[in-house]
Amino acid sequence: MELMDKFQKLKDILKEAGSGAIAYSGGVDSTFLLKVAYDVLKDNIIAVTARSSSYPEREFNEAKEYIKQIGAKHVIITSEELDIEGFSKNPVNRCYFCKTELFSKVRKEADKYGLKHVFDGSNFDDIGDFRPGMKAAKEQGVISPLKLAELTKDDIRKLSKMLNLPTWNKPSFACLSSRFPYGKEITIDKLSMVEKAEQFLIDMGFKQLRVRHHDEIARIEVAPEDRARFFDLDIMDKIGNELKKIGFKYVTLDLIGYRTGSMNEVLSEEEKVV
After folding, report:
1. For residue 107, which of 121, 117, 99, 92 has the smallest C-alpha distance?
2. Residue 89 backbone class (left: φ over 0; alpha: ψ -120 to 50; beta: rest)
3. Residues 89 and 177: beta-carbon distance below 8 Å
4. Measured between alpha carbons, how far is 99 from 160 in angstroms, rounded to an integer?
5. Residue-by-residue DSSP string for 168-195
6. Is the whole-model pTM more than 0.70?
7. What are the average pLDDT values for consecutive 10-residue runs of the chain, which has 274 residues?
8. Bridge-partner residues for 142, per DSSP?
9. Which residues have C-beta within 8 Å of that of residue 189, sequence separation ≥ 6?
10. How far is CA 115 from CA 26, 103, 170, in A?
């Protein structure tokens, strides 16, 4: 299917749906979905952003700015994952608990405003990935318009650029809880360490990155093309010293570089069936 055909299919899906609340994070996918949904449905769409300790302040502030530019109504709620029983133990299906909580709260906001559906920003690429949250979405009756329109991440970036959205080249983001190996307890203090470390690297000019929390060790993933920057001894010293101040004992660079779902690489196929 051609790109503009997919774009039209997305509009048709949203028009047929009639109204809804979007679980909005401020990322590439949800910002694009919100823009198109607002253009099609106007006041019959709202954006719902959930604040929590695994959602960085940086991302929240950007989300607010993007929505101002689009003009949609923005509803801010609290959905603290660490309060969900079992979540902090970081099981393989951690995202299932999180998304179940999130979508149920977004559903309440949709009902409050008389809106028919809950939408999320899952795209066509997500089908082949390990995403327990998709099970929660299905159980909660959440609609994924981007996926239904067969729009990939690359498609969404191209269309976002066409629509002059500031997120068209924004680095991919996942909640801070994804920085921990499965089975390792997640705490507010540990999440704060990761957020501070990643913000420091962003301030240094790194864009696509993750700081994975392995107890005393920080494992830094940066875009493959940015790995060469670490050959500068001053940069290595600066990053190492700062992350130690944040609380890590050892600071390492992942030689392969950033890739989505690196924490899933240790899972067997049986473990991915949740």
Report:
1. 117
2. alpha
3. no
4. 25
5. TTPPP---GGGGS-TTSPP-HHHHHHHH
6. yes
7. 96 98 97 98 97 93 96 94 88 88 95 98 82 82 97 98 97 92 95 97 96 98 96 97 98 93 55 46
8. none
9. 247
10. 21, 14, 29
